[in-house]
Amino acid sequence: MEFSEALLKFQLNWPHFFAVFCLVVVVYKSSVFVLRRRDAQRNIGAFPGPKPNWLFGNVMQFKQDGTDMEKFLKWGEQYPYAFPTWFGPLACYLNIHHPDYAKTILVSSEPKCDLAYKFMADWIGNGLLLSKGQKWFRHRRLLTPGFHYEVLKPYVTQMTESTKVMLNKWESTAKTNKTFELFEQVSLMTLDSIMKCAFSCSSNCQTEGGTNAYIKAVYELSHLSNLRFRTFPYHNDLIFYLSPHGYRYRKAVRVAHNHTDEVIKKRKEALEEVNELSRLQAKRNLDFLDILLFARDEQQQGLSDEDLRAEVDTFMFEGHDTTASGISFALYCLACNPKHQKICRDEINEVLGGKDTMDWEDLSNIPYTTMCIKESLRLYPPVPGTARRLTKPMTFFDGRTLPAGSRIGISVFGIHRNATVWENPDVFDPLRFLPENVSKRSPHAFVPFAAGPRNCIGQNFAMNEMKVAIALTLKRYELIEDPSFKPKLIARLILRSLNGIYIKIKPVNPVE
């Protein structure tokens, strides 16, 4: 009887109990929010910066119209060394734009920031870019042999083949004096090249017609990852999953993963009868995928299927998209600077003579062209920024300190255009990279491939491909600026232009 009365009383009063429960939850959540925001503000208190909105942070100040990179540079002039920016009410980053500050972070092995990069995890997995600690160390050691110069040597021939396919396609354009967009065609070429070099696979993506489905998926994933980072409600997995953008993201991930799975499947089938790397090397040149499949640590353990796909996805993305950005902006810079373009062409013609191909030995014999490539990487770094999460307190050279857990953004674009480091930073001047000028600067003033233990493992591959593509292009075509088309820069994981990258070309005079 007593139980029945108690149950009846509860049934009558449950709305009140529920209301009290909801109130307690709201008060608890609000208290946690206030405390977390107060801690975030206190942690960043030593660093003044642009005033954020209490809810949206600084997000509303970014227009995504091609002016945001300039805004960061102006803030850099106002706030020396570093300044905080807020993405929502809790996510705060200290943006570093000076080499003396960047050095403190880059010489450490602090992990990539979980918030900035976790939105890519479904796409590229927990590979070398996103992993940390012992897993990152193990993978770095296993992958390093894949970038030995003996492995890179044969790639020059394949890079040359892919570049020549692209240049052949440009012949009809060269006769019209019409402006054309570079980035999409260069992306196809670098995808074709990475497939040949790293995976011994002829994709024919440059000649099959239309835009390659994988490249379209990479564009979509880059855009949506950046959008999710800037839209703080999307930081919640469930909200993003239920949104139209979440649906588009999952669809693009399936396209990218199908592409990767097919590459791995075909190679495993081809290697079924080979169980030693030395036996395979006797038959043909090794590629990146061979080394991944045969990689073993001290315990003779290789990469799991999941780790294998993560590394292939990472290299597939970073090996073609970043290089496409670097090549496209380098060609644009040379089109805008005909004097330097001519010096490069003369140097290339002297080295190559009558050849229309590049050999491994030629790469080290074009110093002026290499300086021009580096200068374009300074002005237009393919990866305009990177982010880290501190696992321990860190003090900078001026005495200011950040506690463990702080998020740090290293603005490569900001460092490369910092007027206190570079004289006339917006001017294209390859002589900045003469040895005597390089020795006067901080080694962290030029970091297109990052620096320190977490630098880009594929930087030599990227530089080699840039040299091959630019040398063969300049030997064959004169690049001409179209002043009516100026790139509107935007950072979407990779540096891109909202309105494309446009130039004109014409055949080089045979007498020249």
Structure overview:
The chain is α+β, with helices and mostly antiparallel strands and 512 residues long. It has one domain: Cytochrome P450 (Cytochrome p450, Orthogonal Bundle), CATH 1.10.630.10. Helix content is 53%, strand content 9%. It has a four-stranded mixed β-sheet with strand order 1-2-7-4. α8 packs antiparallel against α10 and α8 (155-169) crosses α21 (459-476). The protein is globular and about 100 Å long. 41% of the residues are buried. The model has no long low-confidence stretch (mean pLDDT 86).
How is the topology of this model organized?
Elements: H1 2-43, H2 68-78, E1 82-87, E2 91-96, H3 99-106, H4 114-118, H5 121-124, H6 133-143, H7 149-152, H8 155-169, H9 171-174, E3 180-181, H10 183-199, H11 213-230, H12 237-242, H13 244-270, H14 277-283, H15 288-294, H16 305-336, H17 338-352, H18 367-379, E4 385-389, E5 394-395, E6 401-402, E7 407-411, H19 412-416, H20 435-438, H21 459-476, E8 477-480, E9 489-492, E10 494-497, E11 502-507
Organism: Acanthochromis polyacanthus (spiny chromis)
Main location: endoplasmic reticulum
Protein name: aromatase
